[in-house]
Write a structure and sequence with these properties.
5 helices; single chain
């Protein structure tokens, strides 16, 4: 039986992902007419932005926060960002940075 993949992955474009990611950072609104890759980049950046703001609000009240249910989503977004050409950034959430570093290590190991 042939493997079925999401139609958006069949036409994946890393440059579009990066453009969507950067668009969110520039506060450009989401676009339903943009490519699937662009939308994924925008959504990953938005998730990181929203969770970072939520995390900072919790921490400023003196409570601790380990990102809870969003940890793995942020980790995956960091890995996706690395694979699609987004530079490392200290201002991102810790799970995002860990995902980025993990993907970077995996990419280096794959080249060896």
């Amino acid at each position: 039986m042939p493997v079925k993949i999401h139609p958006g992955l069949a036409t994946w474009n890393g440059a579009d992902y990066a453009a969507g990611f950067r668009a969110r950072l520039a506060e450009i609104p989401a676009s339903e007419t943009a490519s699937h890759s662009w939308q994924c980049g925008w959504e990953d950046a938005d998730t990181n932005f929203q969770e970072s703001a939520r995390h900072n609000r919790v921490v400023t009240t003196g409570r601790t926060d380990d990102y809870g249910e969003s940890w793995f989503t942020l980790f995956d977004a960091g890995g996706d960002a690395r694979v699609n050409g987004i530079d490392f950034d200290e201002s991102r959430t810790d799970p995002w940075k860990e995902g980025w570093i993990n993907a970077d290590i995996n990419l280096g190991a794959a080249r060896e």
